[in-house]
Amino acid sequence: MVSRRLLLGALLGATAPALAFAEGEGGSPSVLTKKGRRTARALTHQAADKAALDKALATVKPMEPAPPPAPAHEAMAVSPDEALGRLKQGNAIFARGGANISLPSMVRVAELSKGQKPFAVIIGCSDSRTAPELIFDCNLGELFVVRVAGSTVSREGLGSIVYAVEHLGAPLVVVLGHTKCGAVGAAVDVATKHAELHGALHEMVLPILPAVLEAEEQHPADLQDAAIRQNVRDIAHRLKVADGTLSERLEEGRLKIVSACYDLSTGVVAFDA
Fold first, then answer.
1. Tens-place pLDDT, residues 235-244
2. N-term to C-term CA, the chain
3. Number of helices (H) and strands (E), helices first, in the chain?
4. Which pick of 110, 135, 218, 238 has the fewest CB atoms within 10 Å?
5. What is the distance between the alpha carbons of residues 222 and 31, in angstroms, rounded to a whole number?
6. Which cofactors are named for this entry (predicted)?
7. Annotated binding site for Zn(2+): which residue ranges?
């Protein structure tokens, strides 16, 4: 509620202190002195002004309270560039050691139970050192994460990505690799040293082998590192034509698909866009 003293001060100027006293704030002047009689006469005139002010205040519409924040599942949509900017900013915070690692409150958890609106899809490696929520300084409900060793995308993974884009409205897909990736290193050994992997491990590296061979043609000083970066670039390129929903949204400017690489030593993510 607005203080009556402030309103009176604005309208009556210098007479406000006396009128504040008339409302019971301050000591009582002596009516037996000349000064007290002058004060009494002034208060008589001010009482009439106060009555007029009260009448005017009665017609003033009270200020309406600010609307409550929208629930998490009704958050405003962001553009692909805005989403990318948020990831870059979050990683910059993480890389300088200022990441927010506080757990979400139960109020936040309750809001998220009503729905989700992630602003980005992260296709990452299962490596325990590359949790996207941490390296991008994000929290529950902000990222839709698909993780498998080597950051590859299976048919099931593609379905997860399409779901996040089509049904959850995610405007950005990031294919995230990382330095010293063991899955890519294993693929390099298979391609260059004819290493033998059994069963599921062999199947894990098969999608990475084309990137290894492509990187090898460039004769890099560090084949594993070059293959890591080539792998995520290839996956991002294939995703752009892998599904009609993704292709359509890319053409309309409602979606962006980019590749990136996280440096385990520095904490910095280098984006290809």
1. 999 999 999 9
2. 51
3. 12, 5
4. 218
5. 97
6. Zn(2+)
7. 125, 127, 178, 181
